[in-house]
Amino acid sequence: MVTTQEKKTEEKWGMVIDVDKCIGCQACVVACQSENNIPVNEEEHFNQRRPIQWIRVERYWEGEFPDVKARFIPIMCQHCDNAPCEPVCPVFATYHNSQGLNVQVYNRCIGTRFCANNCPYHVRFFNFWEPSWPESLKNQLNPDVTVRSRGIMEKCTFCIQRIRRTERESGRDGNELKDGDRALNTACVNACPTDTLVFGDFNNPESRVSKLRKKEMDDHHGRGYKMLDELGTSPNVIYLKKVDKEAKESSTH
Amino acid sequence: MLPGDFQEPRITQRKVLLLGVIGLGGVSGLVVALALGLFVLSAWLGLPLDVFGFNEGPDQPIEFPHTVHVQELGLDCTFCHRTVTKDAAASIPAVGLCMTCHKTVGDGNPEVDKLRGYYESDRPIDWVRVHRVPDHVHFVHEAHIRFFSDKMGGDSETCSICHGDVGGMEKVNQVRSLKMSDCVDCHRNNDAPTDCTTCHY
Ligand code: SF4
After folding, report:
1. pTM of this prediction exceeds 0.90
2. Do strands A237-240 and A13-18 pair parallel, antiparallel, or not at all (unpaired)?
3. A7 touches chain B (CB under 8 A)
């Protein structure tokens, strides 16, 4: 709130995802569903290709039967600096804020679904139904997150409620935002058991994401890449390639 | 008389009655339409019009007079609304907090008896909410109080910017529309952020 004004430089939130570490456990998905009041997806929703998952873990098989390998890649909103979803919104319900977040304003959204059609990552989800939860889960809804009603587009927010809360609390207690603070990290980052996901501020050269970007986005040695980079969306999520000795050997031979 | 010639209609008693009924119906319809219009208009203004007691606050389960506690006893807002300077919600005091005084104070007052009833039967008081912003608005008391008490000094004066002079109200009512324009105007005047995600997320 007030604290964001007092800051000298604004943050630029981003994430680094080390695909090599991901074991496909789906803990991030569950954490996200419960943190962000996402309705429970049932079989029927998947059959209609209309489940809501702000983060999903895509699985790919590699190789023939005895030698198969499973590859996992967690995908969420890439918070593109040049987001294709933003210019098509007729009511400015999605826009880029000063902290580098691609924002979805629920109360402004009129549900044209243009943005979802324009998103190359398929990370925007439309509420085709009024959200509902089983009776036993009613009391686990997060009060800091709006429950989206039917007819509204939604997507990963980088857990902006956590960012706002830590900002406010740091203003109240007079301390700095700490990089890697569990209260600041998104729910998926906190849940990941293998440290695949790293969240932080790209504008702070001391943050872990900045250091990783510096090291890994190096053209010659780095493993870093951006998803569908050729589209020119300039995402704020950096992926680190799988380390695969065999693949390397076969390509050099 | 030729056929098709103008004939003066005969005024019968039945016709007079019919006309009277139609006229009365029209007038009452107009009144209803006006009342409806007034209702819609007042909703559009954000605050009920201050006529016919529209503007009055809701009836509470216990007629709690802020006047006695604030004006006569001089309690600070934060004495009861304890988390208001630390958290998003201002919080309603627990019955136990009221009972720290009312165990001994207020014998014979029927409202205090009601309070003791709640305390003895271990029930919370279901106060009727007066100020409510929609679900997609995340209002944080703490940040606002911090800002305004830095600017003006004193927590309790800060509260009255939005809540009016609650200390002088027998029955609390809303004094500001608390519509988005209300919030945004104030944010603009005070150089507060007006990014959508300041409140909507
Ligand atoms: S929690 Fe971590 S390891 Fe598990 S699927 Fe998600 S990113 Fe991969």
Report:
1. no
2. parallel
3. no
